[in-house]
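quick one before i forget lol
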Amino acid sequence: MTYLGLNDIPCLQEAGIGISINAKSELNINAADVVILSENIYKILALIRFLRKGNLFIKINLFWAFSYNIVIMPIVAGVFYRFNIFVSPVGSCIAMSVSSLLVVGFSHMLSLFKYDDSLQPRPALVGSELNELNESNREVSTFS
């Protein structure tokens, strides 16, 4: 939820993610989870984009962690020992280290995400500009 004033502090505290825009009081800053210091509300879109990237990296990390546990753990436990498939303790330590490094590496990739401030409002088309746009679209779509 996004709130602006002092009377919104209880709502900021109860919201899943409280976003305060241009917070000028200490109470707003303490109550909100995210504080946007300017009045540009389009920064909320950049925040949502960042959160979606974060969720993507969480899913990638979960995939690697679960794939390690599904593939390596039965082999290390000796389930396939009678088929002469086993891993030494040193090999299992190396596999666990590689798995942890993959998770940390993918988490570090989130820091490569650049903030895009190009999300600005588009000017509305007024009467004559809108008619010109419609006429140009008609000319393109007609067949001869």
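fyi Residues 48-116 form one domain.
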